[in-house]
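W.,

You were right to be curious about this one. When I first looked at the sequence I had no strong expectations either way, so I just let the prediction run and decided to look at it fresh. Below is the sequence, 136 residues in total, followed by the output.
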Amino acid sequence: MPSVDDFKARFVRDFPFAPDSDQTDLSFIIDADVTRSINQALIEFNESLFGTEAQQLEVFYFLAAFHLVENIKIAQKGLSAQAKMPVTNASVGGVSGSYQLPERYAKDPFLSQFLANAYGVRYLQFLFPQLIVTGK
């Protein structure tokens, strides 16, 4: 079973975790945030797609991290939180840039959500080969 402590150890450099002595400081990621994200990831995760328990946990934690980032983004906006689709091009003044989202991800109503942050994209990088192998 995934744990808050294991999540925090896995992403020690990625997130500003609150000290254990002050889990009320909401300027940090608190254990309740991680627990919520783990619970959300448990709903979606299919462990049968991955081999060993260590592999399952590695992939699972990226799914949980995806949910953590999305939950924090929503919490920071509160009632003014709005949904955004991934940006495929942008311009400022005379400079513009664009990128193409992989069509398989962009058109899939479930998979496209993971394009919202880097942890979701990393999760897809682990998931996609397994979907090809299993034909799903």
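Here's what jumped out at me. The CA atoms of residues 14 and 56 lie 20 Å apart. And, maybe more interesting for your project: The mean pLDDT is 85.

Coffee later to discuss?

I.
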